[in-house]
Design goal:
Elements lengths: L1 H22 L5 E9 L4 H6 L2 H10 L1 H4 E8 L3 E6 L12 H4 L6 E4 L4 E8 L2 E8 L6 E9 L2 E11 H4 L6 H9 L8 E9 L17 E7 L2 E10 L14 E3 L1 H25 L1
Parallel strand pairs: 6-12
Antiparallel strand pairs: 1-2, 1-11, 2-3, 3-4, 4-5, 5-6, 7-8, 8-9, 9-10, 10-11
């Protein structure tokens, strides 16, 4: 109990000092993140040799390992995935692009998310509220690079973290379940630093008293590899503007409807063949 009180006091003192320091200047930062995901091969994996599993992982490396840039100030951020070229084919992942996170703008003061998505050549501008995350503050501390970080955890519905994505399992559950489906929850572990007291972070994550440098959830970890404070070549933090206006729920429904049409069309062609 005494340790927790001392830790809380230290957090408050650091937060007060850093907030005063940052408010006195035209503050902006650039954070570089990389993510790694483990692929769940399910029943197929049980039939595959280790060599075959390795080959699949190599083929899907661009989808399992990604790099991002987060430009941020005290109230806004712009999160962008860096495009990669496939090391084997020399091409970009066009199929994966349809279900990847687009350029994402977050405004903490306005509780606003603006995200550019492109789905089979059509542009959408997804505008919605920021994802609500009820963080539980922990006592654990660790070092990430030059930054002292504190642990926080939360539980969030899985579909709220990947609303732009799609799997055929989603389509099956939509067509087979007439009742409301069970909500699958995801355990989130985050590490944030009070040395950069902004309530922002990568992807959908925000709301802690310092910049989030690491997030782990199920098979994916997002980790900050570099931070540049007040860079000389400052990027303009501006929300995307092009695309058909839509919210997250309607965008998800649009994608599922389109994929259902594609599946049915493919099934009809096979039956005629």
């Amino acid at each position: 109990m005494q340790f927790k009180s001392i830790l809380l006091l230290n957090i408050v003192l650091i937060l007060i000092f850093n907030t005063k320091h940052l408010s006195a200047q035209d503050f902006q930062g650039k954070a570089y993140y990389f993510s790694k995901s483990k692929m769940n091969l399910g029943r197929w994996g049980a039939r595959m040799s280790e060599a075959q599993k390795k080959q699949v992982n190599n083929r899907l490396k661009n989808r399992l390992e990604k790099t991002y840039i987060l430009d941020f100030n005290t109230t806004e951020s712009l999160f962008i995935e860096e495009e990669k070229v496939d090391a084997i084919s020399g091409a970009t992942d066009t199929w994966g692009t349809n279900f990847s996170r687009g350029k994402q703008y977050k405004n903490i003061l306005e509780n606003k998310l603006v995200q550019a998505q492109e789905f089979y050549g059509k542009r959408f501008l997804v505008v919605d509220e920021l994802q609500t995350i009820k963080w539980e503050m922990g006592n654990e501390v660790k070092q990430i690079g030059d930054y002292t970080c504190f642990k926080a955890t939360a539980i969030v519905p899985e579909k709220e973290l990947s609303w732009y994505n799609f799997s055929w399992n989603q389509l099956q559950s939509n067509t087979t379940n007439t009742n409301e489906p069970d909500i699958k929850l995801t355990q989130i572990e985050a590490w944030y630093t009070l040395q950069i007291p902004v309530r922002n972070g990568p992807a959908e994550f925000w709301g802690l008293p310092g910049l989030i440098l690491e997030v782990s959830m199920e098979n994916t970890t997002i980790l900050c590899s570099q931070i540049i404070m007040n860079p000389n070549d400052r990027s303009k933090i501006k929300a995307p503007e092009k695309g058909e206006l839509i919210n997250k729920s309607d965008y998800r429904a649009t994608v599922i409807e389109k994929m259902s049409e594609m599946r049915n069309s493919y099934g009809r062609r096979r039956s005629r063949g």
